Amino acid sequence: MTLKPEQIKAAIASGQNAKIADGHNLYLVVKNGRGFWVHQFRYGDVIRSHGLGSAETVTPAAARRAREAFMVAKREGRPLAIATRSGELFGTAADAYLSNHADEWSPRTRADNRALFAKYVPADFNARPVTTITPDHVADVLRPIWDGPGNNRGSRLRRLMFGVLAAKDVHPNPARWDDGPLPNLLSRKRAPVEHREAMPWHDVPAFLKTKGDGLEDRAGRFVILTAVRRKEALGAPWSEFDLKNRVWTIPGERMKKPGGKVPPAHSVPLTDAAIECLGTPGKPDELVFASPRTGGMLGNMTLDKQWLPTSPDGKPYTLHGFRTSFSTWAEEKGFAPNVIETALAHAKGNATTQAYLRSELFDARRKLMDEWAAYATLGLGD
Predict the structure, then answer these.
(1) Is residue 60 part of a domain?
(2) 26 and 57 share one domain
(3) What is the spatial distance between Cα 343 and Cα 320, in angstroms, rounded to a whole number?
(4) 76-86 per-position pLDDT tens digit
């Protein structure tokens, strides 16, 4: 029997505890309104169970691939991390997490994520059952490479560790940051700002004229015209767009979180040029710039690596750097600093102040974005 998604949903929604075979010793275990994938196999003289993740986040196809990968490792005689009564071992859970989420990342990101675990997570940590891991254990792993919160290897590893433990329903999650003890266990210094190479604003119109109407072209042009962060654009579903009123509202949960706190939602005024980048509207939960291969988000590095040129001195431009191009142009044209900062969704003041600025300055921001689109696409106003 091969389980279908609708059968899995129905089994979980039934509220009844059950163990349902998917085939080849893979089972959907339903307990207390939750579903989990479990692979059973013989280990010596006993039958063991190997957890493959929550059925809410791991698709049937991903569970089957993870089961097959585990069995290949077993046949090849590679060491196996076997779950104990206290829970699945972290090393096993991490391997399953990286495999289950591989399609969400670019090839380079997949390799980087595995390298982080291989280089910085020691064997004794991998051998711990996930239910016995504490914030002190997590801090001990992170401390040698911790440079503070930011876009750095320590923070990336913490986020991945959080994901591994969340997939195993470990509560409270010892790798959490927002309201957990880790900030007190690790240095609170911030990592140095990583400056991204920005294209001079004078060169933007000529650059955009070289681009066509392909998916990457439209996605990259949309990021530049809206001056948002790359992940905010590439992860946007159609439900966030009000095309009638020409507004895109990004939920705070999808935005950069200064200090780990969720900011207010950010409303982006849409220009005609930005709307043209969107293409034909799809279902509310579908991504606007979905990967043709997976239906998920385009790899974060796709546009930087394949779409952008290098600067005259040989340094690679980055898509994030166009936020600097935009802000420099806006300053040169005499726009008010608070309008520019609000357009960039830079946090100023508390949540109430941020929400007020984003609301009260919306008309000023629409004028700013209209002029930026006219300049970037047509070279008007130079």
Answers:
(1) yes
(2) yes
(3) 14
(4) 665 554 444 44
What is the tally of structural domains in the chain?
2
Cα–Cα distance list, 165 to 11, 169, 228 (Å): 24, 6, 30
| Identity at 176, one-letter amino acid code | R
Do residues 285 and 221 both lie within one domain? yes
Taking only the tens place, the pLDDT of each residue in 320-348 is 889 999 999 999 899 988 889 889 987 65
Sheet holding 34-43, edge to edge: 18-23, 26-31, 34-43, 46-54
The CA distance from 122 to 91, in Å, is 10
242 has which bridge partners?
247
Domain containing residue 224: 201-378
Residue corresponding to tokens 């109430």: 352
Does residue 119 share a domain with residue 263?
Answer: no
CA distance 258 to 173: 20
Contact 141, 125 (CB under 8 A): yes
| CATH code at position 267 | 1.10.443
In the block, residue with structure tokens 């921001």: 365
Lateral strand order in the sheet of 247-250? 241-242, 247-250, 266-269
What are the two backbone dihedrals, phi and then psi, of residue 182, each rounded to the nearest 5 degrees? Answer: -55, -40
* The residue to which tokens 């293409």 are assigned: 279
Same domain, residue pair 174 and 216: no
Q: Are residues 72 and 102 in the same domain?
A: yes
CA 120 to each of CA 48, 49, 127, 135, 146: distance values in angstroms, whole numbers, following the listed order: 29, 28, 14, 16, 11
